[in-house]
Design brief:
five-stranded parallel beta sheet; 19 helices; Rossmann fold; 19 strands; alpha/beta; 6 domains
């Protein structure tokens, strides 16, 4: 029984221990990782301020844990006096006594040196990452197992050679440095790195000048000079320069281009060249920090130093100092190039070009189609003229008997009258001649000769094979010519011809007399043929002209032929439509084409109670 009690007690203790451990684990898991960023000079001193900003961003992006990031500055680095460091150490000890840091990130060489000097009394067990520091400024022999370094390697010789590469005529380089301890260190390092160039260029220094004196010096530099910006933390007058104000003021007055190796100054004031990229160092620093926060030993993490990236140049500064792109090192990248019209409006330009090409193609196509249409119209007109001429010959064949009859009458009258005249002249010897009868006979001979001549001239006009010519044409004259030609057919079919012509004003139009005569002749012959089929009904053919108030001339051809179905009347002018046995159906189509070519209209209406009415309407000629 006692053993059972002891077992129960032991089980309860184990359970309580596990529960407590689990609760502590959960509490620790919920605790954010505490990280301190330690600045060398202040939070707004370039280039370290840019590194700090980017490191903070990269830490947040890469860390799987919540982070509590604080930032502090070692202002004592601005001078060689280390006495103020003791109160600062005490301040940090008190600040993190209850909540120790998980990681310290020192930015710049002075911060790294400060941590190494006070490591045992302040941060003995806290892992640290030294970053944004040249490898020459790190005391590797003093590093502990809790220290990791993300160093940079500044190649001053390459930076100065870049100046001579892009500006080969450079003779003088002014190196901007101040009087703080770190600036004095780098002055010596720059002088060592530039030793191979002593025969090509002369270096001058600004650590003996106040910043105002520096501005005056930069404004009066001799030709073929350049400025190399290292640092300007504290000038010879003891004035501290934060941020980017000093460099911006220098650029504004300097009469020579400014170069540097740090990307933090790129994009506003320097020309460019091979640069240490802030992003490269910051990304690598954040990666090392996350590994340490994840449990890796800081001393076991080794990273190669960050070196110069491919050269970058500011196009605006290149334009300002007339630096040719051909002078840049191979692989150089140009930033901030002013966009050309093509760069700014490429899509719009392409759309406009496409629209212009489309419009050009459309215009060319339309011109081509217009040319083809004109050619087709010319060919069609030529064919129409040919068809009209053939139609006239066909009409002449139909009128041959009538023409022969018309010519036979005046010729017979001429013969009879001539014989009578001869008889009267024969009696001249026998008795006094009948002079009046002879005169009348000869006048009738002349009249009948004119009649025969009119018939012949009318037929000749119809069969002339000449191009159309627009002249003033009197509709009344055309009708009279047609009645002369068709008189035989009209008389032989016992048709009563009723002609009513207007003379005030005269129905004068502009057109081709031959073509218009052909139209009237075709319509009259069609009417004669229709009336001849009307049986014993009255056979009447009416011809009317009228000059209307709307400046048009109207001609009507009305017959008393058989009734016509309105549907048939609608198709009369269609090509190849005919109601005649053996007809081709082209006569009315040709007539309509001729009238429309003259700017008029030809219509047909079934007449009441029988027959058809055709109307020709043409613009009346008016003297201007």
């Amino acid at each position: 029984m006692a053993v059972l009690v002891h077992i129960r007690i032991l089980s309860a203790v184990v359970i309580a221990f596990l529960a407590t451990s689990f609760a502590c684990f959960v509490a620790l898991a919920d605790e954010p990782k505490r990280v301190m960023l330690l600045h060398s000079f202040g939070r707004e001193f370039k280039p370290w301020s840019e590194y700090a900003r980017e490191i903070r961003t990269q830490l947040v992006q890469q860390s799987p844990w919540d982070l509590d990031i604080t930032e502090h500055s070692l202002v004592t680095a601005r001078s060689s006096n280390q006495n103020p460091e003791v109160p600062f150490v005490q301040y940090l000890s008190a600040l993190f006594a209850e909540h120790p840091l998980d990681l310290i990130v020192s930015i710049g060489a002075p911060a790294a040196a400060f941590v190494q000097r006070h490591r045992h009394e302040l941060f003995a067990d806290t892992p640290m990452v030294f970053t944004a520091v040249d490898e020459r400024r790190v005391q590797f022999s003093a590093l502990s197992d809790n220290d990791s370094v993300v160093a940079v390697r500044i190649n001053y010789l390459a930076a100065l050679e870049n100046i001579l590469q892009v500006l080969p005529d450079t003779k003088n380089v002014t190196v901007v440095v101040g009087t703080s301890p770190i600036e004095k260190f780098w002055k010596d390092e720059i002088a060592k790195g530039a030793e191979p160039l002593t025969k090509r260029v002369t270096l001058s220094w600004t650590d003996h000048l106040s910043f105002e004196e520096l501005l005056k010096h930069a404004a009066a530099l001799p030709p073929h000079s350049a400025i190399f910006w290292e640092l300007m933390l504290v000038d010879a007058a003891g004035v501290v320069h934060e941020g980017n104000t000093a460099l911006a003021r220098l650029r504004k007055v300097a009469n020579a281009p400014i170069f540097s190796y740090d990307e933090a100054f790129f994009g506003t004031d320097i020309v460019g060249g091979p640069l240490i990229l802030v992003a490269d160092t910051s990304r690598q620093t954040a990666a090392v920090a996350v590994r340490i926060l994840g449990g890796e030993k800081a001393g076991s993490i080794k990273t190669p130093p960050v070196q110069f990236a491919m050269p970058r140049f500011d196009w605006r500064e290149m334009q300002r100092w007339h630096i040719s792109e051909s002078r840049l090192l191979p692989g150089s990248e140009i930033y901030f190039r002013s966009p050309t019209i093509w760069d700014q409006y490429r899509s719009y330009i392409l759309i406009i070009i496409a629209a212009i090409l489309f419009q050009t193609g459309l215009i060319v196509w339309l011109i081509h189609e217009h040319w083809r249409r004109q050619l087709a119209e010319a060919e069609s007109l030529e064919l129409t003229h040919e068809l009209a001429r053939m139609n006239r010959f066909a009409t002449a064949g139909e009128l041959s008997a009538s023409i022969a009859h018309e010519l036979r009458q005046p010729l017979a009258a001429i013969t009879a009258l001539g014989s009578a005249g001869l008889q009267w002249l024969k009696r001249l010897k026998e008795q006094s001649p009948e002079v009046d009868e002879v005169r009348n006979a000869l006048q009738n001979v002349v009249s009948e000769g004119h009649r025969a001549d009119d018939v012949i001239n009318s037929m000749r006009a119809m069969f002339k094979n000449e191009p159309p010519a627009r002249t003033k044409v009197n509709f009344n004259d055309l009708i009279q010519q047609v009645t002369v030609i068709t008189a035989g057919s009209i008389k032989s079919n016992n048709i009563v011809l009723d002609v009513n012509l207007t003379y005030h004003p005269s129905p004068v139009v502009m057109g081709d007399a031959i073509q218009l005569q052909q139209v009237i002749l075709n319509l009259v012959m069609n009417a004669v043929e229709a009336v001849s089929q009307s049986g014993h009904r009255a056979r009447i053919l009416l011809l009317r002209t009228e000059a209307r108030s709307d400046d048009t001339v109207l001609m009507k051809i009305v017959d008393s032929g058989p009734s016509v179905d309105p549907k048939v009347a609608e198709k009369m002018f269609d090509p190849f439509f005919t109601t005649k046995p053996g007809g081709m159906g082209m006569g009315l189509a040709i007539c309509k084409t001729i009238i429309e070519a003259h700017g008029g209209s030809l219509t047909a209406f079934p007449n009441t109670p029988q027959g058809m009415e055709f109307q020709i309407v043409l613009p009346r000629y008016r003297r201007e």
